[in-house]
Amino acid sequence: MQPQIILLKEGTDTSQGKPQLVSNINACQSIVDAVRTTLGPRGMDKLIVDSKGKATISNDGATIMKLLDIVHPAAKTLVDIAKSQDAEVGDGTTSVVLLAGEFLKQLKPFVEEGVHPRIIIKAVRKALNLCVAQINELAFKIEKHDNEKHRALLEKCAATALNSKLIHQQKEFFSKMVVDSVTTLDVLLPLNMIGIKKVTGGALEDSMLVEGVAFKKTFAYAGFEMQPKGYDNVKIALLNIELELKAERDNAEVRVDNVAEYQKVVDAEWQILYDKLAKIHQSGAQVVLSKLPIGDVATQYFADRDMFCAGRVPDEDLKRTQKACGGAVMTTVQDISDKVLGNCAHFEERQIGSERFNLFQGCPNAKTCTIILRGGAEQFLEETERSLHDAIMIVRRTIRNDSVVAGGGAIEMELSKMLRNYSRTIAGKEQLLIGAMAKALEIIPRQLCDNAGFDATNILNKLRQKHAQGCQWYGVDIMKEHIADNFEAFVWEPSVIKINALTAACEATCMILSVDETIKSPKSGGGEAPQPPMGRGMGRPF
Fold first, then answer.
1. Which of 365, 397, 417 is the last residue before a domain boundary?
2. Which of 12, 82, 197, 298 is 20–30 Å from 463 (CA)?
3. Where is this region: Disordered (predicted)?
């Protein structure tokens, strides 16, 4: 009778070996099925309701993955690669997940037949290196010095990114807007300098790009309507000061023995406020923006002197105004001079939909802009914002890395052909594995066809024939239910998306394949500890 050896705490769940690997692969498959139908111009959208009951309608792979609350440890890697693709390139999040899932699906039979995972991983790495080299070789470089061409290229890339989104009907309009907004930025292309404000109501075409800063009118006190609502060549004071009467009795104790002295205290309070206001007025500023509230006395004081003020301006808007109009955010009124005031050519308050917006335009060193989106439903606007975020990221990437490839499944078919041909030149198990990788790459064009309701097998056969004949840019043409030269059709994507997507997918595949055992510790505290009953305070039971 051998004594039983207990190594792990009771209740620890261990599973290992081949069945574990296969179950991990199956878990990844079910995630892929969740986002599979969102790929491409004919992709469907998902409606996700979270635990608080907030509904989100989205087509963006990364958004869907974030909102799905996934607990399976192996499947979480797919969520991570979708997030990393979103952060790095912005678009192509669905294709990353699809590719990783398909790699695993094609390699699963080999795992079941007992091929060692390390051999499979080696083959995956090899295939990845071949693909990246091939993309770099095929990618089409663009000349930056020709502004017309460069701009047209950026618009095409933005349009391709918007193709698969909710707003693809208006992609012409939005791709121009996105390119305009990115080209106003400075060399580093900081994302947070493009503000996106959403106003419900109106049509999508009413959206506009403000070259400068726009933000919603803040809460205002009486006397606000008497202030002028438009200026030319204005000076702007940016403050971080509260311009309100501070009731000092809250902050200090003052003992007085007659009414006259009490009056002095009150007068002093008022005087402090008036001194502040006079200093601001003397500085010559016509527009006063403050992060902290501006009270009713101050509002009327400014109105009498033809000045405009807004208190409780959100921090990011104040920062963007500072970036656009120059100046500095002051925390005291003592030394407000011309040096710390911002300036812009035109300031106005305009009614947009049901909201009022303050617009600063014609800023001297404006490296910032604001997109004001209009549209019907709240969810629709949020989805539009996500789509524009993808397009903006794409344009930024294209400006930095100036090479493009054809989208619509064209580059995947070409890589698939290249891998298939290469696999026939090597002996050994890798031949089969690289062949499987080649087959897995075809998932992108296949899924594009499936989502649009075409006959995928038929179209893929045509594509294989074209690629074998050397037409390297042939891909799926969604409009005509046929195949077409997507480079001629201007379905362009930055090559960095594809490289990033393949690299991330291969890394995730390798990671999942290299896991052969999962050990899950039980929840600490030996299962669910019974909750103490609700007490009446001080821990006394009812």
1. 365
2. 82
3. 521-542
